[in-house]
Amino acid sequence: MSLCKWSEEDWNVLVHTIHKGKCILMLGPETAIANLDGQPKPIKIIRE
Q1: Measuring CA to CA, which residue among 13, 5, 46, 6 is closest to residue 29?
Q2: Where are the alpha helices (DSSP H) in 1-48?
Q3: Whole-angstrom distance, CA of residue 8 vs CA of residue 18
């Protein structure tokens, strides 16, 4: 199950703009970074 509806081109543009220094990616504490037991889990849960 994908939680993101971004296209491949959207991701490419984001990575390109970050690489060029024209965008700063800010992640909040609820950002899902990994699957744990088949469910996306936020950073604060995985660190605990």
Answers
A1: 46
A2: 8-19, 43-47
A3: 16
Taking residues 30-45, what's their average pLDDT? Answer: 71
Whether the predicted model's global pTM rises above the 0.70 cut = no
Structure tokens, 23? 């965008």
Other C-beta atoms closer than 10 Å to the C-beta of 47 total 8
Question: pLDDT digits over 10-32, tens only?
Answer: 989 999 999 999 998 887 776 76
Sorted by sequence, the CB contacts under 8 Å of residue 23 that are 6+ apart come out as 14, 17
CA distance 17 to 24: 9
Give the whole-angstrom CA distance, residue 19 versus residue 47.
27
